[in-house]
Structures are given as C-alpha cells and as structure tokens.
Amino acid sequence: MLEVQNATVEVTWWDVLKATSFIIAAGTVSFYLGLELETQFIIASVRCVVQLSLMGLLLDDVLRVNNPWVVFFITMTFIFLGSYEVVFNRTKHTFAGIFPRIFGLLVISIFLIGITGTAVALRATPFWTPQKFIPIIGMLLGNTIGSITVAIDLCLGHISLHAPMLDARLAMGASRYEASRPLAIEAIQMALLPIIAQVSVMGLINIPGTMVGLLVAGAEIQDAVIYQQVLMFMITSSCTLGSILAVAACLWTILDRRHRLQLDRIQPNRAIVTITIVRLWTHYTAEWRQKSWSLTKRYTKLEQTDIELETRP
C-alpha cells in the first residue's frame, strides 16, 4: 500500500516562469549554433504549459467522479489525441488509412496493459479507479506513441530505401512476411532501444520521474521504488506491443495480400501544427541568424570556403 506522509511543497506560476529561463538558454544556444531548433522549443514549451494546465483543470473534476464511463471517455480521448499526434505531427512518412490503424493498435496495447497492470500488479479495486488508472494510462500512452512513431518511420523508410531488394525477394517466391522480416525486426529493435536503455540505467544513473514525484509528495522510499518498477515493466510491455502492431500495420498496407510491393502508398507527411505564424517566426529567426553571423564574422563551412576562394589572388 502506497502511503504518503504529510508534506507541503509550494510551487507557484512564478516558479514556472523562472524555469522558462532554461528553455530560453537552450533556444539561445540553438540560435547561435544554427541548429534551427528555437521555434520547436517555443512551440513545445507553449503546448506543455497549455496542455498541462487544461489537464489539471480537467482531472481536478474527473478524479472526484467515481464513474467508470467518465474514466472510459477520458481514456478514449487521450488515445484519440495520441493517435492524432502520431499521425499528423510526429511521423515523416504516412499512408492512406493510417489513423484508424494507429488508433486501433493504441486501444489494444494501452487497454490491455493498463487494465491488466492496474488490476493485477497494483491491485486496484476496481481497476478503473480514477486516481490510479488515468495517470497510468497517460504514462503508457506517452511512452508508447514515441516508440510507434520511431517504428513507423523506420519501417516505411526502410521499405522505400530497400524496395529493389524486397521486389527481388518477392519475385523469387518469398512471402511478404519472409521478404520484410529483416526490415521489420530492425525497425522494432530501434523503436524499443530508448525504453530498454531507460530501464537498464534506472536507479543506477537516474532517478525516474514517478519515483521523484512520490518522494517529493512524501511517500515511503520502498513504496516509491516498488511502484516505479511496476510502472516501468508496464511501459516496456506497452511499447513493445505497440511497436510490433505498428510495424505489422505498415507491412500489411504496403505489401498487399498478393505479396506485391505497393510503394506508391507511402507518402511524405506534413505536420498540421505548421501555421503561418510559425513560418513567419522561422523566417525571421533565419534572418536574425544571418545578421548575427555577419556581425560576429561567423560563417558556415561552405561560406568560409567561398570567402577564401574570392580573396585568393
């Protein structure tokens, strides 16, 4: 049983504003090094503040309502938004009908691991207890969408890159499973590499976020350790199942039932988040970067080579 001692931690919006200096520092370094990441830092930071604030307002009421249908609705909303994020904002490659497939595989992996882990490992009665089920679903979903994004991009990218090899294998009589198996294995392995590395170094090099939150809230150390271990095993399982299903969905779409490679189904993805303001900001930051380089006599390798050629007699 997880017990939390009395502890008072007062953190205000002023503290959040002070923490923004870290983002500003990262954006400044990106600006002067020409990494072109400052726009992404700004977008991600604004989304973080807005989304967490809305979630706080929403969960404040939801966690007080002991209704399974409300919990189910919130869970499905999270999964829908996670599917939207993967399909329209994360992946570099896409294909027709990818959204319902991603939504379906997220429902399977998140619900299967979430319900089983909450009911069996954490022994929550009932399993849909809002205080436990909703935060766990959020953690599972956040990690799983990262893994399936990598799996989809690598799978579709490898298919495009190694299309002649796949055609040759299919022409020699290999099934679509046999022809694509090496590419699928590599995509799944790379997608799961971050979570495996995270589990491997946990407790030795870093203190995980859930454990930190419980300790800050005043929980017993042993309870926080056990709780974190259970969650990490659930996250690893969810990422694995989601990555396998994502790669399978890609292969079943690009390689049809007649074992033919339909390379024309792979299309480049364009993020919907890109709006006019973001484009203008990117344009202005690029101009500022060029001005700063000209004032400080900093040039790229290509520009420096051109200058040296022009100054030679």
Task: Describe the structure in your own words.
This protein is mostly helical and 313 residues long. The protein folds into 2 domains: 11-62 and 276-313, no CATH class; 70-274, no CATH class. Helices cover 75% and strands 1% of the residues. The protein has helices at 13-33, 38-62, 68-90, 98-121, 130-161, 163-171, 176-201, 209-217, 221-254, 276-296, 301-311, and strands spanning 93-94, 267-268. A two-stranded antiparallel ribbon has the order 1-2.
Short structural summary:
Helices cover 75% and strands 1% of the residues. It contains eleven helices and two strands, in the order H-H-H-E-H-H-H-H-H-H-E-H-H. The chain has helices at residues 13-33, 38-62, 68-90, 98-121, 130-161, 163-171, 176-201, 209-217, 221-254, 276-296, 301-311, and strands spanning 93-94, 267-268.
Proportion of helical residues: over 70%
Distance between the termini: 80 Å
Percent strand equals under 5%
Q: Write down the overall geometry.
A: globular
Q: What gyration radius follows from the Cα positions, in whole Å?
A: 24 Å
Number of helices: 11
Most strands sheet: 2 strands, antiparallel
What number of structural domains do the residues give? 2
Rounded average pLDDT:
81
Order of helices and strands: HHHEHHHHHHEHH
